[in-house]
Amino acid sequence: MADMADQPLLRLEGVTKRFGATLALNGVHFDLRSGEVHALMGENGAGKSTLMKILAGNVQRDAGTILIDGREIDVRSPRDARTHGIAIIHQELNTVPAMTVAENLALGHEPRTRLGVLDRRRMVAEARAKLARINAGIDPNRPLGSLSVGMQQMVEIARAVSEDARVLVLDEPTAALSRAEAQQLYRIIGQMRSAGVGLIYISHRMEEVWQLADRVTVFRDGTYVGTGAMGDISPSDVVRMMVGRPIADLYRHAPRQPGEVVLDVSGLAGDGAGPVDFTVRAGEVVCMAGLIGSGRTEVGRLLFGADRRSTGRVLVDSRESRPADPSAAIAQGMGMVPEDRKDQALFLDHSVEDNIALSSLDRFVTAGVVRSGQVRTAVTRQMQRLHLRLNALGLPVRALSGGNQQKAALARWLLRDSRVLILDEPTRGVDIGAKREIYELIDELARAGKAVLVISSDLPEAIGISDRLLVMRAGRIVHEMDSADATEEEVMFHATGTAPADGAQENGARH
Amino acid sequence: MSKDEDLPSVRLTEQPAREPFDFAKWWDRVGILMVLVALVILMSVIAPNFNRVDNLLNIARSISVNAILAAGLTFVILTGGIDLSVGSIVAVSGVVAVVAAIGGWPAPAAILAGMAVGAACGLVNGALTAYLALAPFIVTLGTMTFLRGLAYTITEGQPIVSSDLNFRDVGNGYLSGVPIPVLVMLVVYLVAWFILERTRYGRHVYAVGGNAQAARLAGVRVNRVTTSVYVIAGICAGLAGVIFAARVISAQPTAGTGYELDAIAAVVLGGTSLAGGRGRIVGTLIGSVILGVLGTGLILLNVPFFTQLLIKGAVIILAVAIDSLKQRPFLFRAAAKARGADSPKT
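The joint structure predicted for all components is written out below.
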């Protein structure tokens, strides 16, 4: 084995971070030895990225200690992180695409000649040397933006290595890489490990984690679940650790009897997803599960005409639907609550009333004039239905809590009385009370004969509120199952592409 | 009637609680109007002859061209765009209207020709901005220069004077003692107010400026709305160009030079956010009047031209600074109000 001193290279103890009402990290611990790859796993929202931001100095912890070589340190800024030898390779790269590779590598400490002029020749030579250390054959004179994402990542790693990083954090590094690029990355990781660097590896891909890591730590809902050496733990153990929380009454609903097919999708494909085939019936809630980036949101957007589809046929109530843009889809009876309500759904400075009424104004127009009294009455009715306080009517949406903002986004389609609803992460960033209300609303909509397609990364929710599950991976629907028989483990296995281990079915029986 | 117990809960939900004084809200509603009132009072006191009826009508007439430009520009700025070409459109449309009138077109046709040219220019601005996703600042900077060049080209660089111009009344006439340009301006504002406040299209203009992405996903045809606001700005500029030409009874290739900046100043003074989505057409009218009153007052006071510029610039910055500061919750207690609005339902 590699260097196994008593003292871990990096140690985090009792790290806690609160954002407003949510506890993002609750007294977690984590340790990293020099020369090891330590995988950090957990569902979305488990607290991995918050921990990384704390290490990077972008976010300050509320409590807890960070130790390097047993000495307590403070990371107040990205500069501090660099001083302590911590480097982070983010999913979004922190580079300047218009500048050359050499310029990027020299950023902030450009070599100068005695006259104070930029020493371009030395800069290129230094860049070449830095790239050579990780055996990356990249021309330092090329503009960074002309390189593939994988190559750009290599440049970032070369920078980290050149700064003598001792702790290197890789956040989903292979998400955007080709197979060959990923192989090259694995080789570099191997080199760094033998050079004594400690690597924290965040990934959703089981296969890759088992290939690379020495140990794995699992977080769930901001808490530490456990750590194990790769030899003592199986992928199914890790999945269980990631998802294993009881399914509470939160999702309980009476059985529904789906009717005729309302949404019939065949061969639908576009950028980032497809082809996919599926149906949603009247009175049915169908949930798309899968990892982030598996193409669920893309399918929703293709259906709604938000992105252009390349092929495929969509029938709504047996009528062909080829929306050129969302306004056409809305006219055909669709409604979508997008993933990011603040960026994609709401007008934060506009009143709650205007936000809710926007898509239904055509219903309240007489001789070209919007009947504002009728609009107000109709909006008020929807707000009552959703238990939104009526004196919020004239307030900017910005003033509402996350849960109430989400309700306002939903109310838009309730007012429109859309036949097909596409709800992308309807409860993200929403407190438990509002969650419950949104679940009840989804159930109520289905009972009223709507076809509801929910996209959710929250596995218990996806299983709990739906009648049927579509599991997506790499842009395709890889598995379809009845929600009543589904287990979180089973969904996760399909979503990550890991074959179910023996006995997983029995062990994962529903609580 | 109903039992006592029922009443409070009904009241609570249907009647907004009395809110504490909120500077941001107050300023949004009447702030800029107060500035105007204060300015008028000040000028009446210190400037000789300021509040004589003929002077006030003169002010009204002198602001009409800028106010009409600003009305159209309000639509553009509400969507988060900008139009620098309106000053050049004033020149081109004026030239076209005068040339048409000289060529024997009847007055209404010549006026419509000027407005149609404005609409066409706006269509180019709008289509380039919406469908090619070019930055409106750059697009209209380009058309501003191009159209100025066009005005010079048509006139060969010389003013075309037509002393018997058939639509000269549009600039110089009176109707029951009120200058016609002032009446036209009022009609423009009435129509603009109606469109923005009372029609679905108006709500869509605000939606595009508030959040274009969300507007699209809510079913607003963002590209069409974006294109149309430039057409509206073009029509207004065309109308302003016709009035200007009628006023000076000639086609001036230099007409409207720099007017786009005065119009933008009026819109921003009126409280419309350059980021889009927030603002009111009434504010723009008040903003135009403030600039007009200030300009005329300073002339009456015999303030040297150079000093006038200093004062005008300072006023614009001050007004926009207040508008921006009111967004800071720690200054004006907006945050406390926002939090209060979110207390759980009872």
